[in-house]
Amino acid sequence: MLGQPQSQDHQLSPEEAEQLFRALLHKEGSWVDWGLGCQILQKSGYSAMEIFEKTGFQGSHQNMITVAAQVYQSIADDGGSEDLLAYCRGPRSDVLYELRILNNHQRAIAAQVAKDKNLEFDAAKEVAKAMQHFVRLPQIPDGFTEHPGDAMAYQAWRTAKQKKDLQDRTRLIAKGLKFAHSDTARKKLSNYSVI
Predict the structure, then answer these.
(1) Nearest to 98 by CA among 119, 81, 80
(2) For residue 111, how many other CB atoms are within 10 A of its CB?
(3) Structure confidence at residue 164 as a pLDDT band (50, 70, 90)
């Protein structure tokens, strides 16, 4: 639909703006195109309300797809595989939006985990937060790696250790095992579950 985004300094002509409004109104292309279109219009001085009135995209939806399109572009720029990018172009704007808090390289890895584990947006948000917490640790905990799956496994393991209720611990260990990437993380979780 849109091709390459216009230069950020470029003021759209009325004809170009009208073409973008029409494409958005008819939902041409993918959500990535819509996000880029909203971004181009906003940077050219159109307000979220004007875009809503001409396209039907509410302000909150404009924000989500614009940010998600930026995350998508960062994954593409980081060398994301065509298979991963095709997954991201699917109805995954909500998942990519949750990865906005990560750096470009982390986004690509987290998106791959989201694809591999078929995560919804709430689980993707959890992965992103676990990754952020994990990189802030002074050192990688014994038995875990820097992989997002291991970051999630560590969070589950750490939380399980604080639970007194066996059912809660078991649920958390199972969750950790679902995400664990390395054999050492799986072993750490499995060893805890038998205690």
Answers:
(1) 119
(2) 29
(3) confident
